[in-house]
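hi! just following up on the protien thing from before. the input was this:
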Amino acid sequence: MRSRRLRGRRAGEGPRHPGSRVRRHRRVHRFVWLRSFPDLAERARALQAFYYGPVWQAHREAANATMLDSDDVLLLRGPGFTAPDGAGPVVATICHPLDAAAFADHVEQHLRPEPAAATPALAVHRTEHAENTFPALPVRTSEDVVVWFTVGDTASLPDLSAQLKSAPQRLRLAPVRSRVEGR
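and the predicted 3d structure came back as:
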């Protein structure tokens, strides 16, 4: 009930949230939140309204007690992503490229399957190197990442070791629909 109040209220306080919460596959206590804002000024306004608003203030201690890790935050720029209704598993692929701009181009040219393919790469995002407009929510600023999403079963990646600092991380996610969002 507590999380339902938070999700329902948050949806009206700024960022687009329907379909933006996904659970790590086989790790039911780990969630990924994807928040989309039109610009950084709106991000600051929306997060201020939520985190200093009455609902979060009333329930933050209980909510924070359920979070195992809330420090893995990336500020990204890209088109945003919402899993399509009825989508199967969603896979987020996170890469730490040696050259972020060149690698993002490589993803677009070589890794994004044709639209007719079973698992097209959707919503390619890159690190946003701008000032964090809401410092109360720290973000990791010391790294460049390229992140993209696929829906459904995904094929193995080709060898990208010459272009990456470390092996790609693939998070298998399952969309979570709340009672508020599912009405």
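The CA atoms of residues 19 and 83 lie 6 Å apart.
DSSP finds four helices and seven strands in the chain.
cheers
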